[in-house]
Amino acid sequence: MVSVTHLQRITVFTGGASGHDLTYQQHVRALGTEFARAGIGVVYGGGKVGLMGQIADSALEANGEVIGVIPEVLMEREVAHRNVTYLEIVPDMHFRKARLGELGDAFVALPGGMGTLEELFEVWTWQYLGIHAKPVALYNIKGFWNPLLEMIDHQVAEGFIAGWRRDALVIADTPGDLISQLQAWRPPAQDR
């Protein structure tokens, strides 16, 4: 496994919804802006709606690189963002997830729904299996991920997830802290 030392691009998982509280949009926009200012490109699902569109738009407005990867079947449903730096249209969801995994040097889950959870757990499992040695992060706006973290802690306490796996997750709630933790991340010691 090769670990990441420099972040050129971060794959972001989030959905086509914005949530009920405008705070989510504000924080996601600040994150996209900060990625662009730090010279970090955004790789994401290719939509222009919801938080997906917010992260893309804010990075683009700050002159950042944004790569969208969208399956043909979702071109209209997720209203493809045609103004990104590069929009890759792929045949299906499986290919999309593989490309999102290949293109990013790290993975960040923003608030989202079922698809966000599915993508998060897949890349976290890939990390565990040694398919990649890239950091996986939760961007914890308004404590959004706290209930999930409680469940993961319960799984650790009950012996279903090793503590070092839980410790491998990056958890941050500001752009600067997130970027710093991702840059400093190293694959965890597996002896705990």
TrEMBL record:
It is an enzyme of class 3 (hydrolase). Pfam families: Lysine_decarbox. It comes from the Bacteria. Keywords: Cytokinin biosynthesis, Hydrolase. GO terms for molecular function: cytokinin riboside 5'-monophosphate phosphoribohydrolase activity. GO terms for biological process: cytokinin biosynthetic process. This is Cytokinin riboside 5'-monophosphate phosphoribohydrolase. It comes from Nesterenkonia salmonea.
